[in-house]
Amino acid sequence: MLRLPRFQLHTPATVRDAALLLQEHRAAEQDAAKTGTPGITVMLVAGGTDLFPNMKRRQFTPTTLIALGTALPRNITFGTAVTIGAGATLTLVANDPRIAEGYRALAEAAVSISTPQLRNMGTIGGNLCLDTRCNWYDQSLFWRLAEGMCMKTDPSVVCRVAPSSPRCLAVASADTVPALLALGASVRIVNADGERVVALADLYREDGISPMVMGRDDIVTEILLPRADGWRSTYLKLRDRGSFDFPIVGLAAAVRLEGGIVRDARVAMTAVGSRPMLVGAAATALVGSKLEDDAIAAAADAAHKIARPMDNTSGTIAQRKKTVPVFATRALQSLRVN
Ligand SMILES: Cc1cc2nc3c(=O)[nH]c(=O)nc-3n(C[C@H](O)[C@H](O)[C@H](O)COP(=O)(O)OP(=O)(O)OC[C@H]3O[C@@H](n4cnc5c(N)ncnc54)[C@H](O)[C@@H]3O)c2cc1C
Predict the structure, then answer these.
(1) Which residues contact 332 (CB under 8 A, 6 or more apart)?
(2) pLDDT (tens digit, 9 = 90+) per residue, 58-88?
(3) Integer Cα distance of 278 and 179 in angstroms
(4) Residue nearest to atom 51 of ligand 1 (CA)
(5) Whether the CB of 114 sits within 6 Å of ligand 1
(6) Could you tell me which of 250, 153, 254, 253 has the C-alpha nearest to residue 209?
(7) Distance CA 176, CA 110 (A)
(8) Is 130 a pocket residue for ligand 1 (Cβ < 6 Å)?
(9) If you write DSSP's letter for every residue of 25-69 in order, what string do you get?
(10) Of the residues 104, 164, 186, 264, which has the fewest C-beta atoms closer than 10 A?
(11) Could you tell me the distance, in angstroms and rounded to a whole number, from the CA of residue 127 to the centre of ligand 1?
(12) With a threshold of 0.85, does the pTM exceed it?
């Protein structure tokens, strides 16, 4: 049995308290790094459905955890825009009929995540901040030590997926992210110095070790969605087991139609690179069309061109690459108004 390492738990009552605690512990972490003992010693935990398994496998061994369960907003509110508290569970997001109606891709993505028990605990904020995954990384410490580790745990070791790669190729795997990208989401981020709103598309980078642009003293507190007027969206997911599994391809498509003409479009993918990606050229191909076959084919081709699956998760590279245009085609065809 894999056991959790020992850690100290803080349960701040407010986001402000959590941000101050995080700042205090991060400062201690930085002081320790200066004296030659670098390493992550403080982390945030929301539902714990990803972090605790990772800690059991010693991928992270923080000595301090700051639990966000009480501090974070957990409601979904509908006004001129939609605000989803980062502490909202995946079950709440998946089951909200207003999300299912106006933001279908998000409901479909949320309900596809892990299992009912994990969706009852797992939060949407935790999903946005999900660590990248890899066959060489998501293993027990015993397994990884026997193999000699990999770049994600020890930067002095080569990337086991592509030994000549200058960077870690671990794969982005969070299901709600492409859905939220396709829906034009942004996030509110709070730290001890204040708060800011960042477009979700600007939150990620192509780096398996450090996949988020966010600072380590930042807390995601809310997800903001624009009005759904005229938008239709959907999410498709390829995974090994239909019952529960991480995506090995995830693709979301959203279009805004006026009189049957596409006025706006977004196609976004995950699990085909270290960052979730928006397919800019797909939007160009679709805007002005009536979702005719040739426009959809051009969008699917654009998605296919930029998908870069590696041999780091289930399925084969060829299977995952070929799935991308098939999913793009199916998703966009399903958004036609008959
Ligand atoms: C068996 C199994 C199957 C799974 N299947 C899927 C799947 O199919 N698809 C999928 O997307 N995920 C899957 N997951 C992963 C996980 O359950 C979800 O991603 C979940 O949404 C994580 O949310 P959480 O609140 O539990 O995050 P936690 O585990 O608490 O945290 C995850 C990470 O996010 C950080 N974090 C959490 N909240 C915040 C915040 N508000 N601000 C800043 N940082 C924060 C934490 O520090 C940590 O690094 C699976 C997990 C398991 C164990």
Answers:
(1) 253, 255, 267, 286, 291, 296, 299, 300
(2) 999 999 999 999 999 999 999 989 999 999 9
(3) 10
(4) 50
(5) yes
(6) 153
(7) 6
(8) yes
(9) HHHHHHHHHHTT--S--EEEESS-TTHHHHHHTTS---SEEEE-T
(10) 164
(11) 4
(12) yes
